[in-house]
C-alpha cells in the first residue's frame, strides 16, 4: 500500500443512499473541500450516477480513489467478474481502486467469494481488494485463505459501539479497519460530551467523533449532503485528541448502539 493510498483512503466520501441532483451536488462539494476518495456499491444502485458525479468533479483519474463493492448475489463464477465489469462501465473507469466484498455470503463460507475477488484483481479489474462486514473469525480465515493483501474490512464503527475485538483482529491479521456509520447516522450528537470536548480544540462535535475514529487507527467513511458538514468532516487532520479525551469518549462504547443489527439487515453475520 502506498503512502498516497493510505493518506487518501483515510477520508472517503460515502454515497449511500444518495441519487440524482443531491448526490451530484454532494460529490462536487466533497471534491471542492478536498475529498479524493469516493465510496459506492452495486447494492446502492447509484454507480452510474456516481460515474457522472466523478466526471463532473473534473478530477484527473490518478487524483481519485474509487471504491465499489460486489453484491453477494454476484458471488458466483458466472456472475462475479461480469458484475464488476458492469460496475466499471457504470463508473466510467477501467479499474476500481478498491473492490470490496460487500457482505459475507449467507452460510458464511467465505473462501469461494475471496477467490473470485482475487481473480478480479489478477484480471486487472481492481488495484486493491478488501472486505466489508467481516467478523473476527472471518478476518482470520480470510488472512489465511488469500495471498493478496486485503486493504480493509469496512464495518460499522463509531464511539457508541465497542469494536475493540475487530481492532485487535486488524493488528493480528494486517487487515486494516475502515468505518461506516461514522457519526452513527446522527445518534452521536445526542451526547453533549463531543461538543464539550470540541470547545477545547475549536472543533465541532462531528469533528471530535471522526478524530476519535482516526486515532483508533481506522479510516473514515462519511456521508453528508450539507456543505458545512462535508467541509467539517474533511477538516479533521489539524488537531489531536489528548489521551484523556480519548478515554472519556471510549467510555461511551459501552452504550452498545448498533445501527446495522441483524433485525435491520437479515443477511448480516452474527456480530462479535
Ligand atoms: N459497507 C457497508 O455495509 C456500509 C453500510 C452503510 C454505509 N456504508 C457507507 O458508509 C457511508 C457513511 O455511512 P452512513 O451514511 O450510513 O452513516 P453516517 O455517515 O454515520 O451518517 C450520515 C448521516 O449523518 C449526517 N451527518 C454527517 N456528518 C455530519 C456532521 N458533521 N454533523 C451532523 N450530521 C452529520 C448526515 O446528514 P446531513 O446530510 O444532514 O449532513 C447523514 O444523514 C455511506 O454513505 C456508505 O458509502 C457502508
From TrEMBL:
The reply to whether NADP figures as a keyword in the UniProt entry is yes
- The NADP-dependent oxidoreductase domain covers 25-252
Q: Which UniProt keywords apply?
A: NADP, Oxidoreductase
Protein name stated in the entry: Aldo/keto reductase
Question: Source organism's superkingdom?
Answer: Bacteria
Question: Where are the residues marked Lowers pKa of active site Tyr as a site?
Answer: 69
Single Gene Ontology BP annotation: methylglyoxal catabolic process
Pfam families recorded for this chain? Aldo_ket_red
Which family does the record claim for this protein?
A: Belongs to the aldo/keto reductase family.
| GO MF entries | methylglyoxal reductase (NADPH) (acetol producing) activity
InterPro entries tied to this protein:
AKR (IPR020471), Aldo/ket_reductase_CS (IPR018170), NAD(P)_OxRdtase_dom_sf (IPR036812), NADP_OxRdtase_dom (IPR023210)
Write out the residues that bind substrate. Answer: 102
From the UniProt record, list the coiled-coil ranges.
none
Q: What residues form the catalytic site here?
A: 44
